[in-house]
TrEMBL record:
Residue ranges constituting the UBC core domain according to the UniProt record: 7-161
Region annotation (Disordered) ranges: 1-23
Enzyme Commission number, as recorded: 2.3.2.23
Protein name from the UniProt record: E2 ubiquitin-conjugating enzyme
Domain of life: Eukaryota
High-level lineage: Eukaryota, Fungi, Dikarya, Ascomycota, Pezizomycotina
Broadest EC class assigned to this enzyme: transferase
UniProt-recorded Gene Ontology molecular function terms: ATP binding; ubiquitin conjugating enzyme activity
The entry's keywords: ATP-binding, Nucleotide-binding, Transferase, Ubl conjugation pathway
Length: 170
């Protein structure tokens, strides 16, 4: 069943207002341009993680029937993480694997943009190597944590230090 006409827009603008007036710690997002379904933002690497000091820009695309289907988040910089696609060149960004963004797994229309971003940011301190996008990184996380930590810090230094929300260097 399709969302009632106008309901999705009201929800999107409410989410945008929350992100403007009361954003979650370490997260920022806003509607990009005229299309309320296209957002940009960034997540700051938590201080207590190997991603500390990093600024990780992303795009967020809300589907036409949001909130009944989950949005798509794509980071605009490489991140060494088992749940974030980082290998190869991806002109549309690097996808995220988290249950709450999967329609038939953990998604609920109750999730708002601010809650989604908090969950994604929590991956920076608590990766889920048992359900990875990057098998080799997950294996390394589980079997050689020191090596994983070193590489994650190197990626953060190389790709995310000095970045701003639109993905350009400062």
């Amino acid at each position: 069943m399709a969302a009632p006409k106008g309901r999705g827009s009201t929800r999107i603008y409410k989410d945008a207002s929350t992100m403007q007036n009361d954003p979650p710690p370490g997260c920022a997002a806003r509607i990009e341009g005229e299309d309320m379904h296209q957002w940009v933002g960034h997540i700051d690497g938590p201080d207590d993680s190997v991603y500390a000091g990093g600024n990780f820009p992303f795009t967020l695309t809300l589907p036409p029937n949001y909130p009944y289907e989950p949005p798509h988040i794509r980071f605009q910089t490489k991140i060494y993480h088992p749940n974030i696609k980082s290998t190869g060149e991806h002109k549309h960004g690097f996808g995220v694997c988290i249950d709450i963004l999967q329609k038939n797994k953990g998604w609920s229309p109750m999730f708002t943009v601010d809650r989604i971003l908090l969950c994604v940011r929590s991956l920076f301190t608590d990766p889920n190597p048992d359900h990875p996008l990057e098998q080799e990184i997950a294996r390394e996380y589980k079997t050689n944590r020191a090596k994983f930590d070193r590489k994650a810090k190197e990626y953060t230094q190389k790709y995310a230090i000095g970045k701003i929300a639109n993905g350009k260097s400062s």
